Amino acid sequence: MQARTVIDEMAAALDVRPSKFAHVTAITHFARALGAARSSQLEAAKADVAKLAELRDRLRAANDAYWAEQVDIQWQAAAAWLALTEGWADDVLTRMRAAADAEDRTEKSPVTPGPLAPARELLGAMLLATGKPQEALARVRGNAGQGAQSARRHPRRRQGRRPGRRGRRGGAALRCRGGAHRERRSGAPRDRRGRAFVAKQD
To answer: For the chain, how many structural domains are there in total?
Structure first.
C-alpha cells in the first residue's frame, strides 16, 4: 500500500510536456489525475480531470472521433477515481464500469501502444479499494483472458501491424537470401547440377 502511494504521488508530479497532438498531452494528464486522486490531492486531480475534458472536446471539435473516444475513456476513469476520493461512493463503480465497457468496445489501432492503465484493471483496483476483493480478482482475471484472446487473434500486433502479403513475401525473400549466404560462405554449390559437376571433377 505504501509503495502504491509513492507511485501515485510520483505520477501526480509528472511534468506535462507540450505536444501538438491533444491525445499525447492527455496521457500525462491522465496519469497525473489518477495519481493525484489516489493520493488524496483533490485540487490537483480536479485540474487534470478538467484538462482531460478540455482535450477531449478539442478532439471532438477537430472531428477526430477515435482519439476523442480514447481521451473520454481516460476522463471517465479519472473522474470516477476522483469521485471515490471525494467520498461519492454510491455511483463510482457504475461510472468505472462504464469506462471499462467503453474501452472493451473500442477497436484498438494496431500501431498504437496499449492504454496507460486499462480501465478494466482500474475497475479491479476500485473494487478492491471499496471492499470487494473477490469481484476485483474476477475482473483482473477476465482482463487477462481478454488480452490473451486478442494476442491469439493478432499475434503480430506487438510488432506494429498484422502480416500482409508484402510482409510474407519479404520474410520469404530474407530466408532465401540468408540460405544463399550460408551456402556461399561454406563453399557449397547452390543446386543439384552444381553438386553433380563437382562430383565428376573428383
So the answer is: 1
Distance (Å) of CA 168 to CA 18, 88, 153, 174: 39, 54, 17, 10
* Whole-number Å distance between alpha carbons of 41 and 43: 6
What single-letter amino acid sits at 182?
R
Cβ neighbour number for residue 24 with a 10 Å cutoff: 13
Distance CA 67, CA 187 (A): 56
- Residue 29 lies inside a defined structural domain of this protein: yes
* pTM score over 0.70: no
Q: How many angstroms from the chain centroid is the CA of residue 165?
A: 26
pLDDT in tens, the chain (202 residues): 555 666 788 889 999 998 999 999 999 999 999 999 999 999 999 999 999 999 999 999 999 999 999 999 999 999 999 999 998 777 899 999 999 999 998 877 666 667 778 898 899 889 988 888 888 887 667 665 555 454 444 444 444 444 444 444 444 443 444 444 444 444 444 455 555 544 555 5
The three cell numbers of residue 182 are: 550460408
Q: Which domain holds residue 123?
A: 2-155
